[in-house]
Please model this.
Amino acid sequence: MGHVLSDDMLDIQKMARKFADAKIRPISKEWDLKGETPVKIYQEAADLGYTSIDIPEEFGGAGLGAMANALVAEEFARGDAGFSVTIQSSNLALKPVLLAGTEEQKRFASEVVVSGGMAAFCLTEPNAGSDAASIKTKAVKQGGEYVITGRKCFITNAPHAQFYIVFAKTDMDAGTRGISAFLVERGLPGLSVGKHEDKMGIRLSTTADVILEDVHVPEDHLLGKEGRGFHLAMQTLDRTRLDCAAAALGIAQRALDLSVEYAKTRVTFGKPIAGLQAIQFMLADMDIRCQTARSLIYQCAQMIDADSVDGKMNSIAKAYVSEAAMQNALDAVQIFSGYGYSREYEVEKLMRDAKIFMIFEGTNQIQRVVIAGHLLK
Ligand code: COS
Model:
C-alpha cells in the first residue's frame, strides 16, 4: 500500500513504526496490567512531535495534516492501542479549539498539547451518551463568568488533562441550540476527577468522571458562540472519527501480522498450520479487511487535507475499521486457539482493545444513524 503515500508520508510512517517497536510495545504488557498511562513515554512521543503532527505550524505544531496523523495513530496502535488513543484524545479535545477558538485560546491549548500536556473532551454524561443533546450539565452566566455544574463520564485522559473541553447547557429549553462549549483549565476550584475506570481494554489510556461543582469560568473561555456547542461537537467528531479508525487499523494489522507469524511456526498434523486452507482463508480475509480499511482511511485523510471533510465517509471508516479490528482480533485468537486465550500471548489483549472502537466516539449504531441521515436528507 506504500505506493499511494508520498516520500514524506512514508518517512513519517517509518519513524512512527520505529518508535512503536522500540518504546511502546516493550512496555505495553506491563502497563496493561497496571491500567495506567506511561506518562514518561507520552512525553518522549511529544518531544519528538508525535502529539502535534496535525497542529498548524503557527501554533507550534508540525502542520502535517490528517494523513500524517492517521499514519502515526495506526503505527502507535500496532505498538499499543491505548497509547495511541491517549494521544488522539488530546487531539480530540484540541480540535474544537482549533475550529472555533479565539487566537488566544488556540495558542494556549496548542501549547499544552505540543509540549506534552494532555487534554480531555467532555461531552458524555451518565444519562447522555449516544443522545448527546440530552446533557444536563449547565453553565449559568453570572457577571463576567459562567458557573458550570454537572458530571461528565468515561472521559479519556481525565486524570492527566491540563484542560477540559466541557459541553454544557446555557439554555435548558433550546435543545441542541442551547449547548455551549467551554475551555476549562485544570485546577479550577470545584473541578475534580472521579475514580479511574478499570477497563477491559486500551488500559494504557486512563478514563474517569469529571465533576464540576460551581466551577467559575471567565466568559472569554466560552468556545465559539453561545448555543453553538453541539454543532461544534458534531463538526469535531466528523473529523476525529478518522483518527479512531486509524488506531483501530493498527489493531487489525497487528492481529494479522501475529497470526501469519504464528501460522508458519505452529505445527499440527505434522505440518505448519499455514498449510491448511482453513487457516489460509482466515488470513486472507484478515488482509482483505486491513487493505480495505487502509484505502478508506487514506481516502478520508486526503479529503480532510484537501479541506473537503465528509462526515459520512469518516463515519463509514470508523464503523468499518472498528468492526474489521474486532473481527481480526477474534480470528487471531482462533488461530492461536488455546494459546490465544492465554494472557501470555498478545492476541487476547488485541481482542480486549478492539471492542471499545465499536463504542467510543459514537457507537457504530450511531455511525449508521449518521450515514443513513446523509443518505436520506
Ligand atoms: N456538523 C454540524 N452540525 C451538525 C452535524 C454535523 N455533523 N450533525 C448535526 N448537526 C446539527 C444539525 O444541523 C442541527 O442543527 P440546527 O439545530 O441548526 O438545525 C443540530 O446539530 C441537531 O441535529 P440533529 O437533530 O441531527 O441532532 P440529534 O440530537 O438527532 O443527534 C446524533 C444526532 C445522534 C448524530 C448525535 O447526537 C451524535 O453524534 N451522537 C453521538 C455522540 C457521540 O459520538 N458521543 C461520543 C462521545 S464523544 S468521544
